[in-house]
Design brief:
It comes from Pedobacter nutrimenti. Residues 155-238 form the FHA domain. It is built from 3 helices and 17 strands. It is rod-shaped, with a radius of gyration of 34 Å. The longest helix is centred in the N-terminal third of the chain and has 16 residues, at 16-31. Helices cover 14% and strands 33% of the residues. It starts with 15 loop residues before the first helix and ends with a strand. Strands 6-5-17-16-13-14 form a 6-stranded antiparallel beta sheet, with no helix packed on it. Strands 10-7-11-12-15 form a 5-stranded mixed beta sheet, with no helix packed on it.
């Protein structure tokens, strides 16, 4: 394909239009090297001009040194024509200098150099593994303390370690309260009282009341460390994101203390 900018430049007497067009081609070719031709990560384009003194006025006119918005519009037009996808808020700087720096992308035959500032790639944050630490403050369970990892899936809470459903299937209560207990509060914990699930989007454990843990059968409440007024879960499909120091109240007086253990 014919390219007027590939002619022998030394044989041509430069004028303002030629200098500008050659400069725009130089810019386009360098921008196309970013992200396979995409310029979406460009923040700032800095154009350095360092022509000989006798051509200084030509370069200042060619690159609109006194009206850089015009040059930005020209560059944007080229970017649009070649699908370079510059972001809406990219910035342009034009700097006249007596020489071109060694650290710049330069075409010395054009007396031009550019520096392209891009958005730094974000380093993915270290994954914080959250493990729930649950302590039984009031009530009699199989254990006084439980550790629940985010990979455990659904974690059931209720009275008895195994509960048989009408269809013959078994519900396994990971946090199980004793059927026969000297603590009267255990009687008000349903066999299908509540469960915990890890929520990736929320980054924490969510408490849900099950069929036996919503009124009028029994109660499932949460008292946060920052608020003395307990929140009651009244529906099985609406969960509560547990926070550090929350107290989960099952039935009348069984209380669990919820905390997180975080490990990178």
């Amino acid at each position: 394909m014919f390219n007027p900018f590939k002619k022998d430049r030394s044989a041509q007497v430069p004028d303002v239009k030629m200098i500008r067009e050659q400069g725009l081609v130089f810019l386009k070719e360098e921008l196309q090297k970013l992200e396979g031709g995409e310029g979406a990560h460009v923040q700032v384009i800095t154009l350095f001009i360092a022509p000989p003194e006798e051509q200084q006025h030509l370069y200042e006119a060619a690159f609109y040194l006194k009206d850089q918005e015009k040059l930005k519009q020209e560059i944007q037009r080229v970017a649009d024509n070649f699908a370079l996808e510059l972001p809406v808020n990219w910035k342009l700087e034009v700097i006249a200098s007596d020489r071109l720096g060694q650290d710049l992308i330069a075409d010395k035959s054009l007396y031009l150099a550019i520096k392209i500032g891009t958005t730094p790639l974000k380093t993915a944050p270290a994954l914080i593994e959250k493990t729930a630490h649950i302590t039984v403050l009031q009530g009699e369970a199989e254990r006084n303390e439980y550790l629940i990892h985010r990979t455990h899936g659904r974690v059931n809470l209720g009275r008895g370690s195994q509960v048989q459903a009408a269809d013959g299937s078994l519900r396994l209560n990971f946090i199980a309260f004793a059927d026969e207990s000297g603590y009267t509060g255990n009687r008000f914990v349903s066999r299908k009282h509540a469960h915990l699930e890890w929520d990736d989007q929320k980054g924490g454990f969510v408490l849900f009341a099950d069929e036996g843990g919503i009124p009028p059968a029994n109660k499932t409440k949460v008292r946060s460390a920052a608020d003395e007024n307990p929140l009651r879960l009244n529906a099985s499909d609406v969960g509560y994101l547990l926070k550090e120091g929350d107290q989960v109240i099952l039935g009348e007086s069984v209380v669990l203390l919820f905390k997180y253990i975080e490990e990178n």
